[in-house]
Amino acid sequence: MSTRVPSDRLSPHGETYGDDLNSVRTSKSATPRSLGERLHFLVGQVARGLCLLSGVILLLAMGAATCVDVVMRQFGAGIPGIWEAVTLAMRWVIGLALPYAFYSGSHIAVELFTDSLPPRWRQLAIVLTTAVSLVVVTLLAWKIVGRTLDTRSYGGITSDLGLPTYFDWIPLAAGPVLSVPVLISMLWREAVIFASGGQPGSSRERIT
Questions:
Q1: What is the mean pLDDT of the chain?
Q2: Is 191 exposed, middle or buried (0-12, 13-18, 19+ CB in 10 A)?
Q3: Kind of pairing, strands 23-25 and 16-18?
Q4: Distance (Å, rounded) from C-alpha 168 to C-alpha 144?
Q5: Which residues, in sequence order, are CB contacts of 137 under 8 Å at separation 6+?
Q6: Which of 28, 58, 179, 195 has the fewest CB atoms found within 10 Å of its own CB?
Q7: What's the rounded Cα separation, in Å, for the pair 7 and 178?
Q8: CA-to-CA distance for 90 and 61, rounded, in angstroms?
């Protein structure tokens, strides 16, 4: 699902804020004024931190471990369970980055229809698509968490590292679960802007 954040509203870094009267521009060091904006800002910062954790620490660890394993194999050795460990780390990379992908609008979207709408209708489309995204992701989180608990009850372990098999499902559940509060925050904000008569900018303008 596609959601777009117009340029005249709050970014995760605090460049822009919008209220029910006017768009108020502030510096990057500014603090959101209302409680709702502060919560939205906090959610964005947490999502961004998780994304940095997955994109920097985990990817660097995966790359370093893979390089060491390749070198060690030239001497007839290797890191036991490296394939399983890297696969599990990659799952965490995806799961931790997903909330910020929603928050920043960095996912793929089709804009042919929404870009041709009047501003007021385009804002309504943003509210509706955000609501649909929230419903779908919530259902996805519920199903994957259930699958994780089922797998845990089986008591199986992996062949290489001997880890419980449900460990593979935890990062898959983490992505949708962590995305739910992000989408709730986004839906609340888009709905407030629509109800107050606010108009979005170009749907191609995103939070970065």
A1: 77
A2: middle
A3: antiparallel
A4: 11
A5: 102, 176, 179, 180, 183
A6: 28
A7: 25
A8: 11
What whole-number distance in Å separates Cα of residue 144 and Cα of residue 171?
A: 10
For residue 133 the two structure tokens come to 């995204």
Ranges of each domain in the chain: 16-195
Contact 123, 190 (CB under 8 A): yes
**Which tokens is 191 given?**
């709905």
Nearest 5°: the CA angle 123, 10, 59 is: 105
Let me know the angle formed at the C-alpha of 198 by 51 and 119, rounded to the nearest 5 degrees.
90
Phi-psi region of 184 (alpha: psi -120 to 50; beta: other; left: phi over 0): alpha
Residue position matching structure tokens 């970014």: 11
C-alpha angle 104/125/179, rounded to 5°? 35
**pLDDT over threshold 80, residue 152:** yes
Which tops the pLDDT comparison, 30 or 208? 30
Least Cα distance to 80 among 148, 163, 141 occurs for 163
- As given in the structure block, the two tokens for residue 104 are 């920043």
Q: State phi, psi for 192 to the nearest 5 degrees.
A: -65, -40
